[in-house]
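Recap from last week: sequence in, structure out.
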Amino acid sequence: MNKPIFEGSAVAIVTPFTSEGGVNFKKLEQLVDFHLQNGTDAIVVCGSTGEASTMPDDEHIDTIKCVVDAVNHRVPVIAGTGSNDTAHGARLTKRACEVGVDATLIVTPYYNKCTPEGLYRHFKVMAESSDAPVILYNVPSRTNVNISPEVLYRLADIENIKAIKECNLSQVPETINLCGDRFDFYSGEDALVVPLLSLGGKGVISVVANILPAKMSEMVHAYKNGDLKKAADIQIEIIPLVKAMFCEVNPIPVKEAVAYLGFGTGECRLPLCGMSEKNKKYMIDVLSKYDLSHIDAFLNGGKN
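Predicted structure tokens:
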């Protein structure tokens, strides 16, 4: 196996919007700075949490470039470039590589509900369009399409498909049985990071890391360093926050939380809308139970 794209916690970063609805690039740079100061191991831009599905292509690429420039090679930058139109996704992937990403994150095509053969061909074309390593994103709950272990076995022959962000964790043992160490695995479920690590996973692409970046990284690195109890304790500790961040459709709760905590990230774009008052009150109550002094320290002085 080659060196992993990253080990630890990658934040699936929210995209801040202005009151007029455009991307707030200044706020996005501030969020990047916050994560770099607080231990995030990699940044995923324009993923599901970043509302990429609402972005025209030029805005999508401008957002990726903003993060690439702000990070300036300090941690890996991974860009979401998936599409349910293979040709469109290939063009987007090529453009993301041109602005300097370290890897691309490519979700299964949604709505079309392609066959296993179509899924293989889709990822083959997408991978061939990427000059950077590819992370497959398997999230059947959103796309209604699962990348089966059998399809992954075929995809293992494509050299630059290096990893999988897996949300269907029950199939990971079968995939490893078929594919050996051909792929690195990243958890797509904040609540089940430690179980995936026990199967050899390299880390997590995390929603909760928008709020607790250092804690999410600490959990993974504790496990990697042999402190299984500490990793398990952190996994259990974050569960109430995980539940709060998914009490409505992601990224509605996490974006509300980041805004509430002082980052001024704006509202989600339609068809996503603000939280119900009941759920917002629940979310704020959960947030109050965590030590968020790192956020206050950053916002009040820019330093941890």
